[in-house]
Amino acid sequence: MKKYISLLIVLILFSTLVSSKSIIEPSTRLLNNKNSSIDFLHTVSVEVGSSQNCEPCHYWSQTVYDTYNSGEYDFEYVEYIIYDFDGKKLNTEAYNWSKNYSVGKFPTSVLDGNFERIVGDYPDLLTDALNSSGNREVADITAYITLIWLGDATIKVDIAIENNEQYQYNGHIRACITEITSRYNTFNGEPYHFGFLDFAFNKEINIDAGGIYTDITTWNGSEHKDNQGNNFGDIDPDNIQVTMSIINDNDNYVDETVMARIVPNNPPNEPDNPSPPEDEIDVDINSDLSWTCTDPDGGLLKYDIYFGTDNPPKQIISNQTKKNYDPGTMEYNKTYYWKIVAWDSHDASASGPIWSFTTQKKKNKAPIVVISKPLKALYIFNSFILPRYFRLTKVIGKITLEADVSDDDSNIDKVEFFINGELKGTDYTFPYTYDLKWNRLRFIHLFFIKVIAYDTDGASNTSNIIIRKFL
Questions:
Q1: How far is the C-alpha of 68 from the C-alpha of 196, rounded, in Å?
Q2: In whole angstroms, how large is the CA radius of gyration of the chain?
Q3: Which helix (H) or strand (E) is 18 found in, with range?
Q4: How many CB atoms within 10 Å of residue 12?
Q5: Cis ω on the peptide bond leading into residue 374 (within 30° of 0)?
Q6: Less Cβ crowding at N or C end of the chain, within 10 Å?
């Protein structure tokens, strides 16, 4: 999945580059072809150590560029031109890179931080090394990089790296500022491609599990120069690419590579595909919110979340990077309104519409009601005399009816007492009772007692008992 991010950036940038007056014809064809690349597990990093006074370096440079330009393999590459035509050190940073990888012969190609290595001009080895590197297992990280041209040979470089693993990621990043068509020529007088100028970033990073690392730098070409004393104040914004590799400290191999070119910043696309869907009803009260949103420039987006029962909703979260939100347990049978505003790293934004949904109605359980007095026993003037040796409850004199009522998911509204089908009393508070008094003397008479309990959500339940009255 990660490799598609860099491809997406490439394809998006292509539409901008071809609409502008680009100085690199082949690179536009390259961007169009990259969509057909082999499905690697990540974008491979290829770093080539080269020298202007090395004839095989010329042929190898053309081989790598032609392979890249074919679009058949998912990789990005940088050419470190270490020595000039006189064999003198051309670029100190490039020279330091070569020492770090013990480069002693030219050309030397380091794939994925030395997972594969090709020394010399051997075209037949390149595709096998790319396939071997691209199909190895890597840490689950996602990287973003965007560039903004500030004028006067100055570039703003904005990066973000997501650690999708459940453990801390410790690594190193190298973000190389390169010229697509290099100012430096090969032994045969043709320009290198993706020729190294300087590092935008070359540093250690640590990212917590599930965390995001972000950084921004401003690079001015006029403030940097090669060992011949020539500064880079003449860079052309249409001819710049920054390629960044993320190297894992565990094995010193590259886990991901991304690139970006200088284009005018575009605002994020409008947030879309809400979940719950617009106007959805009967939504679970424990549902999460989610949405989709992309940045046409391939950058990391942050989100402001507006949510609540008011319309328009109030902002409750800002600068969240994940495209989901847990609102907690919502109320039953309520309409909620929500909106997402997406922001890119250049403070451009896009607001989605106000969406709404209605939660489910409460699935209410009826209260539990039991007539606790009288039981099947003998009562004389409201006092318990003998236990339930009788088929029916027997009462002499007056009796107080009592009901035990409970409800696990609601509150009790009222309890009604019926005598022979006629409502005789209603009690709204605990304990729930009714004093049953006889209007006239009857030696023996049956009374059918029914108690109905209601909760505040309208559910009810019933308990019954038959009383045989004496006197």
A1: 17
A2: 38
A3: helix 3-19
A4: 20
A5: yes
A6: N
Q: Residue 33: which pLDDT band, with cuts at 50, 70 and 90?
A: very low
Q: What is the pLDDT of residues 373-429, one digit of tens each?
A: 998 888 999 998 888 666 788 888 889 999 999 998 889 999 999 999 999 999 999
**CB of 357 within 8 A of CB of 281?**
yes
CB neighbour class for 57 (10 Å; exposed up to 12, middle 13-18, buried from 19) = buried
CB atoms within 10 A of CB 68: 23
Give all domains of the chain, ordered by start, each with its CATH number: 3-261 (2.60.40.10), 272-359 (2.60.40.1220), 368-470 (2.60.40.10)
User: Which of 219, 185, 190 lies closest to 202, judged by CA?
Assistant: 219
Could you give the CA distance from residue 188 to residue 244 in angstroms, rounded to a whole number? 29
Q: For the chain, percent helix, then strand, then coil, each to nearest 5? A: 15, 45, 40
pTM (predicted TM-score)? 0.65
Torsion of CA 51, 55, 58, 59, to 10 degrees: -140
What is the pLDDT, as a whole number, of residue 389? 65
Residue 314 CB coordination number (10 Å): 9
Which residue's structure tokens are 């605002």? 267
Q: Which token pair is 393?
A: 């409850």
Identity at 309, one-letter amino acid code? T
- Which carries the bigger pLDDT value, residue 77 or residue 13? 77
Residue 423, amino acid: L
Q: How far apart are CA 401 and CA 415, in angstroms?
A: 12
Beta bridge partners of 449: 419, 465
Cα 96 from chain centroid (whole Å): 37
Burial class from Cβ neighbours inside 10 Å (0-12, 13-18, 19+) for residue 252 reads middle
Distance CA 433, CA 437 (A): 13
What is the enclosing helix (H) or strand (E) of 125? helix 123-134
Q: Share the mean pLDDT of the chain.
A: 89
- The two beta strands, 460-470 and 444-455, are antiparallel
Helix 55-70 / helix 123-134 crossing angle, nearest 10 deg:
50
Q: What is the mean pLDDT of residues 248-263?
A: 95
Contact between 249 and 194 (Cβ < 8 Å): no
pLDDT at 443: 62
Q: What is the DSSP letter of 376?
A: S
Q: DSSP readout, 448-469?
A: EEEEEEEETTS-EEEEEEEEEE
Angstrom distance (rounded) from CA 70 to CA 37:
9
